[in-house]
Amino acid sequence: MANSRVPGPIGLMGPPAAIDDGTRARAPSPRPGPIGMPASSPLPAPVTTELSWAQIKADMEAHEALILHLYLDSEDKVTVGVGNMLPTLAAARALAFVLRSDGVSAATPAQIKADWDSVNAEAGKNRRAASFARLTSLDLPEAVCWSLLKKRIDGEFLPGLKKLFSGWNTFPTPAKRALLDMAYNLGLRGLGKFRTLIGHVEKSDWGKAADACERKGIPDERNAWTKVRFRAAMPADGAR
């Protein structure tokens, strides 16, 4: 029997119908997307949760002054480096202070005590940190200051934040930056008093967290920076 032909224009016969014997190439079928999503919908970008020391250091440089000599903070506590409070003379003597005059000679215990006493004598005068330079003769090398900060961040603040927030490890990096800044500025105990903020953070409601994070006694720019970090933690489409 003759092959069937596909009808062509009136009066003409079309070419023989092609028979698929399994060897013809087929256009690939579209890959299915997640359930409830069209195949063409892009997957959401992965959430970045890493908080590196380089990022922490950059944030601290932006918000905390690096003071190499002893000074009194706003509560008249002896402090050095990046806001590192020294509770006792022994704590100061445990650090590798050097003579400012040459930048290398190790300070003696007596010289550290002399700076300690000079600084403490200014309690109640509300001096700026930099003004204590003329009252002291010793400095703590910059590398030592940053190493001291890193030790406190790793051993005190990050463990404290993990204890305060059960979901810390899954928080987006911008939210972690905001919370660490608040913890270092306020202390972990001070941050713990922001109960409304903590409630929003535990629900990963970063928009409401931004509205509840304002601190008193710091520059407006730092408060604004913190709010931006929380809002940056929100999903791109604004959904929680």
Automatic annotation (TrEMBL):
GO molecular function annotation: lysozyme activity
- Region described as Disordered: spans on this chain: 1-43
User: Which InterPro entries does the annotation name?
Assistant: Lysozyme-like_dom_sf, Lysozyme_dom_sf
Q: Which domain of life is it from?
A: Bacteria
Ranges annotated as spanning the membrane = none
Query: Bias category Pro residues: which stretches?
Result: 29-43
Q: Which UniProt keywords apply?
A: Antimicrobial, Bacteriolytic enzyme
Q: Which Gene3D superfamilies match?
A: 1.10.530.40
- Please cite one Gene Ontology biological process associated with this protein: defense response to bacterium
Recorded protein name is Lysozyme
Provide the taxonomic classification. Bacteria, Pseudomonadati, Pseudomonadota, Betaproteobacteria, Rhodocyclales
